[in-house]
Amino acid sequence: MSEHTHHAPAAGASASSRSRRRPLLPLREEEGTAVEPMLYRVHHLTSYHYAKPVSRNYGRAHIEPRATPHQRVLSHDVVVDPAPARLTAHTDFYGNSSTYLLVDSPHTQLDVHSHARVTVAERRYPLEPMSRPWEQCLPEHWGSLLPEASLDFVHPSPRIPAGTAAREISAEVFTPGRAIGECLADLTALIHTDFTYDSAATTVSSTLEEVLAARHGVCQDFSHVGVAAVRAAGLAARYVSGYLRTAPSAEGALGTAPVGEMIGSAASHAWLSVLVPGTGWVDIDPTNRAFVDQRFVTTAWGRDYADVPPLKGIVVGPPGATSTLDVSVGVVPEPPAGSSPG
């Protein structure tokens, strides 16, 4: 893909890192052509089918795109079938919007639709902050402008405990004096290269240590590995959930080559974000070996998956009321108003 390139190894880079194809760091140019924001229609359907009728369903969903410095939410609507007795919105400590639902009548199927229109702007980062040694991104260098809540993303969390084998990955990537931009590019490439995407290898309850031992997993697992490695170095990293563009784009992220469907675009996706003073949060996606760009739609972020699952809840029903789950996601570009077709 066009955003992948070979970089000259930085001082202190290991021999193994030299052989990995790292994603190109999107730097801000002094004189560059501005890229128009992408306008997307987003549809997320979660459908549960029950073997026997259940009497009650409680759920909380993180399926609403959130406003960010790079993303605007033009509209959002949640539709639940059967019609819920209660449907309310809630904003959590980190600013994520979630939807609480209660279906209080017998049913054998539950469909939760999320419809949204969002614009996603280009992300580029200034050279100077991304060229600083990573040690200058430690909390003692943040200054007074960054909120104290960011410290939550430095410490261990329920799904990302301290003392895991991710310390070895961290030590390989975050070598003394290395530029933070190089570190993030290499971490993205390391996880993408050394771990195998395998949807059958893990479940939502798989532990970080199990993933590190098996070196197989999905986007949720790879994001946890990345967050653990960043935190092991003492930096702030958060787990991000969202979606990927599902329609192939005519041009690549840098406007040089076609881009096909990305890994994880058929359902909810996950990546990680690292705090870099002087530019803010920088998002990387190890699953697709990429810095996050206009193909990504953000829904929520937290310390780990447990803070922002797409949908969790409690079902009340008879014994044997097993269920099957189907999830589908569409993130489709919408032509700007007034544009002519074709």
Automatic annotation (TrEMBL):
Organism from which the protein derives: Brachybacterium vulturis
Pfam families hit by this protein: Bact_transglu_N, Transglut_core
Record keyword Hydrolase present: yes
GO molecular function, one term: peptidase activity
Alphabetized UniProt keyword annotations: Hydrolase, Protease
GO biological process: proteolysis
Official protein name in the record: Cysteine protease
Keyword Protease in annotation: yes
Residues covered by the Transglutaminase-like domain: 211-288
Annotated stretches, region: Disordered: 1-29
Residue spans of biased composition, Low complexity class: 8-17
